[in-house]
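Much of the work behind modern protein science is quiet bookkeeping, done one molecule at a time. The protein below has been through that process, and both of its lines are reproduced in full.
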Amino acid sequence: MRRTRVLTAVLALAAGLLAGGPPALAADAPAPASAPAPVSKAADTYTWRNARIDGGGFVPGIVFNRGEPDLAYARTDIGGAYRWQESTRSWIPLLDSVGWDDWGHTGVVSIASDSADPDRVYAAVGTYTNDWDPGNGAVMRSADRGASWRKTPLPFKLGGNMPGRGMGERLAVDPHDNDVLYLGAPSGHGLWRSTDAGVTWSRVTSFPNPGNYAEDPDDESGYASDNQGVVWVTFDESTGTAGAPTRTVYVGVADKENAVYRSTDAGATWERLAGQPTGYLAHKGVLDAENGHLYLAYSDTGGPYDGGKGRLYRYATATGTWTDISPVAEADTYFGFSGLTLDRQNPGTVMATAYSSWWPDTQIFRSTDSGATWTQAWRYTSYPERENRYVMDVSSSPWLTWGANPSPPEQTPKLGWMTEALEIDPFDPDRMMYGTGATVYGTEELTNWDDDTPFTIRPMVRGLEETAVLDLASPPSGAPLLSALGDIGGFRHTDLTKVPSMMFTRPNFTSTTSLDFAESDPDTVVRVGHVDSGPHVAFSTDNGANWTAGTDPSGVSGGGTVAASADGGRFVWSPEGAGVHHTTGFGTSWSASQGIPAGAVVESDREDPETFYGFKSGRFYVSRDGGATFEASQATGLPAGDSVRFKALPGTAGEIWLAGGASDGPYGLWHSTDFGETFTKLPGVEEADTVGFGKAAPGASYRTLFTSARIDGVRGIYRSTDAGASWVRVNDEAHQWGWTGAAITGDPRVFGRVYVATNGRGVVYGDPTDTGGGPGPDPSGKCEVTYRVTNAWGDGFQADVRLTNTGPTPWDGWSLTWSFTDGERITQLWNGAHTQAGPTVTVRNADWNRAVAPGATVAFGFTASGPPADTRPTAFTLGGQTCAAR
């Protein structure tokens, strides 16, 4: 319920990202310094999943396609875009292919689904408009519902995580000529148009107003001082004919005196709508063409956190009459309006949200008479008691209660906050979805509202993972995964496939910045983080299941980094606002550490309980007395900046791996075997940003190493089973997740398993495909495959594959193999995981479609480069057995 969304790409990554690229780390290996480490650039066979949290971040936009039922998209501010899959009642991520160098393109400022051709979808991407994001924005276009994308760079930046990101949609497809699109730009860049389905873009020079509103014009960082620009585009479909551009177009602008413009000649000329309200920003403009009503939701600020006053208006498109249809008097508002939607089956039904009503809760309003009268989701009976029209069921995501027990009128779980996305399914008046600062909620009983009958609201968020991950730990016993997250604190995962019952509580940190466990006593865990009030440190003696708050040294203002000694008897903490401190016991009192600068990153030796380490500004520090005193080591040649992460190897005292650096100085992976007195830079690792350890490979004695790095010119997630002498890339081009430089760890109990921290896509974990997935298909080989090319273009094609279990027994996991004949290569695949070696392709089940009953069919699809061969694959094998082909 944090009001100030963590700018993870800035606060966590500032040292590297603000310099123009993501930060890095370094480490070392026993390969000879004269030769580069051997590396396999081809991805190993890995299956990737999320450790389920379900949600966790702000969803500012939901878009239903108006031409095809059950087709919907969601956009997030830092975690990409998603498509709703009705068959599984879950969301499918669409932008995992965004790579390290384009990390800003995981922020989605707008999304548009083409109702005339539902296969087409567009996303306007870019995270920040100031220099926090070094790259410009882009418009991504897909002809296969987001399974694959092409990108057009823009000559300016876009702000998926900037103020005003809940307004929109800024991107819109002309319903009559779907080669025409408009894009509202921030930063004074005005209105842009494409006439070739998003391939090229040009500024609409006749559009008169680029906007002038900024949240805080005096903000020197450029974050709050940027002009929020042109914020939405709406077509009046009653003013056009098929094949010709729509004549009337409405555009919203971030200008309190001139918020709404209209063109009646397909964008050739524009005029300010006469008589419009002033003193407010129009967050949304939604048109009911059947009745000739343009509805507008106004707020006095751009959101998504702020907003103290607001109004709802209805504009009669035929007469130009404005009507204030606000459900409450202006004097009674303490919020702005933003979420706005129509029931397309019953256009006189309109709904809106009080998006910035933080306390005691958000409010949702509904009218069935075009705004003449309203009812609301909840009301006071006798203050502070309230009566709700709805019932909240968060059993699928129980952490949404925040472990709270508030006093009335506040309730838990809340109806929401930051509720700028609100949509009624255009084909189903009973289904509504809305986004909050932490999840997507929805109901399929919406019309119960009008009968004054309770309806149930549930999370509709499975598959949408939007947490920013700041630290990870995988202890040798207890829960396999502990996570430190922005905005919602962190979780203890006892089962990676299930949503944990609760985040870390008592105390609740708004963001956990660092956590650690005692290597020889994994039940002892410490975490530190940001909090509005109270201690910034907490301890657990039961592996993170329960917590006790510690106390802060004087001056602490933020979490920083923390380390637990190998035996759990000592802790060293480097908080924000104060220098490095140490304690024995559980932090009832702290003493200042000597010889180490404030702000140093701290870690512990995993074998010697008296030894701790630190790093700051190119110097490595060592304490051999439990953190009381540190001395700078003699190590030289380490990264000069502070974008460094390092870890000590479990089981061996004094062995350290260090990753980090920047492009203008030392950057890579370093290794020390003498308690950090000297480090050797690993040859062949050009850049590295994280380092972690997992279980040793079968027959190997050294723990498996993992890193997010650039090796032999290729960015990726890498694994070494021979102490860094050689590396294999374990992710592929379809699984990159933007910036992955915050944390990485292997699992000490499962060989090959790796947990990767992302900046907005949650905790991603991978397993070698040949070690998981259950017993595999029916050994009788009774199966049937239908392979069908569904679309083709000059340099690629799309295909659908249907696999049927024709045998008598169920499958628990499946793996289908075939060979291409003409050089085709898969570029993206959905509803499964794939590897390709030369012409041979193997597709394995996803987590959710592994079980296939006798007679049942499972389907997956893919896009590939190269023209489809005249002779399509006809030989398919399932677990080594031949399938019938159709």
The chain is about 0% helix and 40% strand. The chain has a mean pLDDT of 92. The first strand starts at residue 24 and ends at 25. Helices lie at 8-11, 14-17.
